[in-house]
Amino acid sequence: MFITRFLASVTPYTHHSHHALDVGRRRPERRELQSSQTSASLCARRYPRARRARPERMVLKRIFSKNAVRADASDERPRKRRRGLRLPKRARTDVRAPGRKFTIVTTAALPWMTGTSVNPLLRAIYLAHGDETREVTLLVPWLALHDQAIVFPKRATFATPEAQTKYVMDWARARVGFEPRIKITWYPGRYATDKGSIVPVGDITTRVPKQDRDVAILEEPEHLCWYHPGARWTSRFKHVVGIIHTNYLEYARREEDGERKESILRWINHLTTRCHTHKVIKLSDAVQDFARSITSNVHGVSNGFIDAGKAKSKEIKRSGSGAFTRGAYFIGKCVWAKGYSELMHVVGDFNNQYAKKGERLEMDVYGDGDDFKEVQTEFARKNLPLNLLGRLDHADAKILDYKIFINPSLSDVVATTSAEALAMGKFVVCAEHPSNAFFATFPNCRTYSNMDEFAKVIREVMASVPKPMTEAEIHRLTWEAATERLLDAAAPCDETKHTIQAHFSDWFAARFHNAVTCSEALRCLIGGGAGTLVPPDDLANWSPDSWGGGLMDRKPFAADFGGAAP
């Protein structure tokens, strides 16, 4: 049936194009003319939609679409066309066109203070704020009460999605200083204790009404689609953009049998993003290569950090170094992969090998996470002058008194905390690494590639005062500028256009991936978790079983369950 349908679809082009080319040639014999007219009429009666000429690029889409497969099974053409937002051909790829509907999908939600909960929320707010004709929806994971108690700080829990929505909007309102014009919707998610992240349950594309499926921005597309069992995002939305937040290869490399896990995960990440996105934005070149990708830092900082930095600049002009009463600090989620190993290394080596008489590098460290107790024990065992003080919001008034932010992490893609520290008028000391390429362009950022350079930089920033930033430099850090960079980077270009070969490759890859993720048994085997194929009907009363990992996942620790064994 595929061949018959293909020939029927192509017939109109062939007929009209030959007619145009045969002008001036001999007219067909009467018998040939009658035969061709009879064939055309039979084709038109059987396939009435085939009478309209269509662009050739739509032929493959009709053959391999879900409706086409169903029609082949029943030997009938689909009678109803999908209805939704209709845009001119050019506007389908013009993300700046008025009236576009954006759906931003992410893998975490407040009060979990992580980059994938904060940055997508602020991106949605400023995207809607920049154009009143835009409609922006933020799609975030809803956790059952058991998972909330593990993930959220201070054992905070919410009985309903509406209660958590109010919490998120109140936080956002206080952070940005104006009324956010966004809609928040929820999809079911499970906290995977072996991965330290949230796994979507079921096909979350169905959480977006058909009339709103226009532009999708997938924050961490590889993560969202590892176990995605439904239709391709690119078949549900007109334009799909993925933003790569996390260097998952670095995390895999640090686990047992890390090299093998890294190579497998590299292939899976490439496969899923290729199947489900039209374009990929890498925040930096610290991550792996992806098909149809571009590198651009599309993150910004809230106005509160910028206002604090402007106030600090005025204070520096009045008091000089007296504007700062504290030295160096670090802030980040307390897991080893977030830079704590590197922090111990640079502080220990500086004090033991490079510090001159009377010199000593002491730091306050803020953060909470799965490895908190282990990190605290290691700091004490090595007698390091690192004061682990627990969780603190980077916007807290205490932070304003510090002069130096030291971030030695090599696993970040782009460290939001480094951007916030720059905005507050501080020195930022970080490793010479692709993740820090954007920050290295600012005058108050110092980078190092070895311990000799680290020691030199530390002495320099301890003896000097940060330079006030210009208005142009401040603007580059804002969410308004980041939104403009996003809209520029999200637009299709010649390098990201699909060829026929790419269409076939993506289609076969998607079919293979879908065959694996639609099997409950295979999902459990590869780490998708039991009971994550079919979503619950009622999110508020959802009570799933305890999480179980896959064949290659690490075994969960007691800390993964909030300090108690499962």
Summarize this structure as a short list of keywords or feature phrases.
single chain, Rossmann fold, 3 domains, 20 helices, disordered N terminus
Mean pLDDT: 83
Q: What would you report as the Rg, rounded to the nearest angstrom?
A: 28 Å
- Please report the number of helical segments: 20
State the shape: globular
Q: What does the oligomeric state look like here?
A: single chain
Percent in helix: 40-55%
pLDDT < 50 stretches: 1-91, 557-566
What is the domain total for the residues?
3
For the largest beta-sheet, the strand count, sense and barrel status come to: 8 strands, mixed
Structural class: alpha/beta
Q: Roughly how many Å apart are the termini?
A: 53 Å
Give a count of the beta strands, DSSP E runs of length 2 or more.
Answer: 14
Beta-strand residue percentage: 5-15%
For the largest beta sheet, what order do the strands appear in spatially?
4-3-2-1-5-6-7-8
